[in-house]
Write a structure and sequence with these properties.
nine-stranded mixed beta sheet; 9 strands; alpha/beta; Rossmann fold; single chain; N-(1-d-carboxylethyl)-l-norvaline Dehydrogenase, domain 2; 2 domains
Length: about 290
């Protein structure tokens, strides 16, 4: 298929590369040209503007947040440049309000819209093993299925309302943030009593919490390996904020979310916004007056 791809950050690069390897004809655009040029060496075409990338059968976008998506997709008139009957797959983690607005805009312009945020870090994206949460018109979802299959190992459909996919992604990231915070606090407690974080986390991630999320982030906490970031504190703060906003809309209290957001805000205030969000362990240690390792 002829696919336009906008947003070649840590996640987008690997996803676009998977589309190329699957044989799709890919046109890419990115704010900084270096990532696009690297993919051009692998066969991608480089678009001069977002609108140029959007003139394909399928447009895929992977942008950081509501603001970036609005600037790159709406203000640039990229969505308006899409051909009638083409489909836009928005794979970013965006707010419920933004998701609804995008769905309405696409409907008004006569182009398809599928929300398809992903579960997985950059290394998973580069391997084509993402789990993709998708929502939108079933016919449109089926049409873009080859594109989604090229980037992920499974697609999890959640109905026709696109914002459902975004809510599920926001809720999943809220759970990850809560898991990281719990390991940060618990390993700080053990350190205060002379038990190394690596020893404690080795026990719990191989027994009570033997799952990929706990094991992966537990290893990063144990090794105090927070750079380079796979997912930054800044993005974590944004996503937990999205969860709290979604909860407010439906009167769903998320008390853990408020606590984790404050921890992430502490990290930002101390200049650690670009560290991996597993660095919440440093926040817990600092507040407990434990020296960094």
């Amino acid at each position: 298929m002829k696919v336009g791809f906008i947003g070649l950050g840590a996640m987008g690069r690997g996803m676009a590369q998977q589309l190329l390897e699957a044989g799709h004809e890919v046109t890419v655009w990115n704010r900084s040209p270096e990532a696009a040029e690297a993919l051009a060496e692998q066969g991608a075409k480089i678009a001069k503007t977002p609108a140029d990338a959007a003139r394909c059968e399928v447009l895929v976008s992977m942008l950081a947040d509501d603001q970036a998506a609005h600037q790159v997709l709406v203000e640039s008139k990229a969505i308006e440049a899409m051909k009638k009957g083409s489909v836009h797959i928005n794979m970013a983690t965006v707010s419920v309000a933004f998701a609804r607005g995008m769905a309405a805009l696409h409907e008004r312009l006569g182009v398809g819209y599928v929300a398809a945020p992903v579960l997985g870090r950059p290394d998973v994206a580069a391997a084509g093993k993402l789990n993709i949460i998708a929502a939108g018109d079933p016919a449109q979802l089926e049409r873009v299925r080859p594109v989604l299959d090229a980037m992920g190992q499974a697609v999890w459909p959640l109905g026709e309302s696109p914002e459902r996919a975004n809510v599920a992604k926001i809720a999943a990231n809220f759970m990850l943030a809560s898991a990281i915070e719990s390991m940060a606090e618990a390993s700080t407690l053990t350190r205060a009593y002379g038990i190394e974080a690596s020893d404690f986390l080795d026990i719990v991630t191989n027994t009570l919490f033997a799952s990929p999320a706990y094991q992966g982030y537990g290893k990063m906490i144990a090794e105090a390996r927070f750079e380079p970031a796979g997912f930054t504190m800044r993005l974590g703060h944004k996503d937990v904020g999205l969860a709290l906003s979604a909860g407010d809309e439906q009167s769903v209290a998320l008390p853990l979310g408020s606590a984790v957001r404050d921890r992430l805000l502490d990290a930002l205030a101390n200049g650690d916004g670009d560290k991996d969000w597993s660095g919440l362990a440093e926040v817990a240690a600092r507040q407990a007056h434990l020296d960094k390792r």
